[in-house]
Known about the structure:
With 206 residues, the chain is α/β, with parallel strands linked by helices. It has helices spanning 14-25, 47-57, 72-75, 83-90, 127-136, 157-163, and strands at residues 3-6, 30-32, 39-43, 66-68, 97-102, 118-122, 140-144, 170-173, 183-186, 193-196. It has a 10-stranded mixed β-sheet, with helices on both faces. α1 packs across α5. It is globular. The termini are far apart.
Amino acid sequence: MAKYFDVHPDNPQPRTISQVAASIRDNALIAYPTDSCYALGCRLGSREGIDRIRTIRKLDDRHHFTLVCRDFAQLGQFVRIDNDVFRAVKASTPGSYTFILPATKEVPRMLQHPKKKTVGVRIPEHVVTQALLAELGEPLLSSTLLLPGEDEPMTQGWEIKDRLDHVVDAVLDSGDCGTEPTTVIDFSGGEAEIVRRGAGDVSRFE
């Protein structure tokens, strides 16, 4: 049965955030809010967490997982980014964008696209997510909480708790956070390729 944490959207309780971060370090799989929609998250090196996300969402090995980073300094440890791409990504973060970029050696091979050796990265603009990342001290391995056969991600913490009670370890609820997943931009080929149109404005990449 999943633990349920109700946190204030603007002033998340430090003790609660600390408890959730501790559970992630202990290999927990959590459902948590972002600035676009809810997501599934686990520790960066957790093979069990990756397998559980794949099972819940029925994903194949070509799915791009996302490293949700606290800031640009952290993001830069996990992807290679040239000057032109740097400026484009910097201008769009924090925000509702995921960028696909070549992974560095800091990214476990099991997280990289098997052929492209790429990974998704993003910096969210969400108080609760940022508090959790600050407490955790490393990125969250993450995937949009979009269940197989459904067109929209789940948006209510209580509903997530009800439906996923036996497949996640914790639900972090700070209220409604929208229904649109991030806009995904693939920069791995040097030029911006819009992979998914979502919550982030795509006009600057067209």
